[in-house]
Specification:
The chain has about 160 residues and is of the alpha+beta class. The chain has 2 domains: about 70 residues; about 90 residues, Zinc finger, CHC2-typedomain (DNA Primase, Chain A), CATH 3.90.580. The protein has a 5-stranded antiparallel beta sheet. Strand 3 and strand 4 form a beta hairpin.
């Protein structure tokens, strides 16, 4: 519960700092965007990964919770979660550019004039600075291809 509160706090901090950008000169705004990307967003992703880890650990520890979720076992879901988000995005999104070990492009979930959608290869997650969409490869496939959870897992496992 505490991690979710921290995630919400980080999301609010990102929104607050992003709302300050229009009032700044170009160099200060650039610096603030990079600061947000390198610190706050990375903290948010780490905390969301911790939440996912604890959820998976909880399922492994409690046999009653190991029932198949919508027809798929926890191992199937974990295998789907481990599919590279970069690989899926390279086949789905045009204009994807590499920046270090991460990728960026215009957000596919809202009208975007400048690239604000980032894919993080080390955590296999995405984040949009424009619409604040975030998630893992499962969330990305669900949103991008408009699939339900069951179809998404099937798509990722049989890719």
């Amino acid at each position: 519960m505490e991690l979710r509160g921290e995630c919400n706090g980080l999301r609010n901090e990102i929104q607050q700092r992003m709302s300050q950008l229009p009032n700044m000169n170009e160099m200060t705004a650039l610096f603030l965007r990079e600061y947000i990307k390198c610190t706050i967003v990375q903290d948010l992703i780490a905390k969301e990964n911790s939440i996912s880890f604890y959820k998976r650990l909880l399922v492994r520890k409690h046999p009653k919770l190991q029932k198949k979720s919508r027809g798929y076992s926890p191992e199937d879901i974990e295998n789907a979660r481990n599919v590279s988000i970069i690989e899926i995005a390279q086949h789905s999104i045009s204009g994807l550019k590499k920046s270090g070990k991460n990728y960026f492009c215009q957000c596919p979930f809202h009208k975007d004039k400048t690239p604000s959608f980032f894919l993080y290869s080390d955590s296999n997650r995405f984040y949009c600075f424009g619409c604040h969409a975030t998630g893992d490869v499962i969330t990305f496939v669900q949103k991008f291809f408009n699939k339900n959870f069951k179809d998404t897992i099937y798509f990722l496992i049989h890719k």
